[in-house]
Write a structure and sequence with these properties.
The chain has 259 residues and is α/β, with parallel strands linked by helices. Helix content is 53%, strand content 13%. Helix 5 runs parallel beside helix 6 and helix 8 crosses helix 12.
Length: 259
């Protein structure tokens, strides 16, 4: 009974903090950064981040820049000095009354070798599977399963990143390092890939690291798809493409190319 009361207090304090420190536009930007729907009331946006993306207080603090954290410290009359993570820790302690119940230690383990380094569970793969979640997930799941039956290692974010890091910076670092460590970048081109913010980030990382691209395009799409990346515009028409009409067809085509 005490535990449930404790968590109700934490929930109330977290909601109060979010509503104080995040306006509706900031919440929309947070949702947009992880490709979630940005419509709804402030409470609906908060619930979407907390229960769909599983954001904890740590994630809300980590999303804020250092100047915003300093402003929060001044607002709550908390010591401002030190590093960003010191400010985050002080705010966390103020809001929750505790620090030990959080997964901060796990987050720090992933960063202890330096910013941008691979977390301890990141490893090398034959292919990194890139896809748009709402139109390509079924194809991607079937492909990963089929490749691994043939002993071909394939990275798929929704399976290979621990679920407790969904929507967190650790999730992003793991994905980014897995692109760099994979031999090939396999892009499943389905409807809307050119508008997916996260997919464009993945493609840019693959381009920056000179990865070999394998492009598989659903037969309903044309070959000339232009994707506006951070540093360039990329036309899939410049790549050799293989079309597919089903998840079984996609797997057959990929196996033929990798064997």
């Amino acid at each position: 009974m005490l535990l449930s009361r404790y968590h109700r207090i934490l929930d109330m304090n977290l909601r109060k903090f979010i509503r104080t420190c995040f306006d509706k536009q900031a919440l929309k930007e947070a949702l947009h950064s992880i490709d979630l729907t940005v419509s709804g009331t402030i409470d609906e946006l908060i619930d979407r981040l907390r229960f769909e993306a599983h954001w904890s207080l740590y994630d809300f603090l980590d999303f804020m820049n250092d100047e915003e954290l300093k402003e929060v410290c001044r607002w709550y009359d908390i010591t401002v000095g030190g590093r960003k993570e010191d400010r985050m820790k002080r705010i966390y302690e103020f809001v929750t009354g505790d620090w030990k119940d959080h997964d901060w230690k796990m987050e720090q383990m992933a960063q202890k070798s330096g910013e941008g380094r691979a977390p301890y569970w990141a490893k090398s793969y034959e292919v990194f599977i890139a896809y748009r979640r709402d139109t390509g997930l079924d194809f991607a799941r079937h492909l990963k399963s089929g490749l691994e039956r043939e002993h071909i290692s394939a990275f798929l974010d929704i399976i290979d990143i621990p679920k407790e890091f969904k929507g967190k910076q650790t999730w992003i670092r793991t994905r980014n390092e897995s692109i760099k460590k994979s031999k090939k970048f396999l892009l499943i081109a389905t409807n809307g890939i050119e508008t997916s913010r996260e997919l464009k980030k993945e493609i840019q990382i693959a381009r920056d690291n000179n990865k070999t691209f394998l492009v598989y395009r659903h037969y309903t799409l044309g070959s000339q798809i232009t994707i506006s990346l951070e540093k360039e515009k990329m036309n899939l028409g410049d790549f050799q493409q293989v079309s597919f009409d089903s998840k079984e067809d996609l797997l057959r085509n990929v196996l033929a190319a990798l064997r």
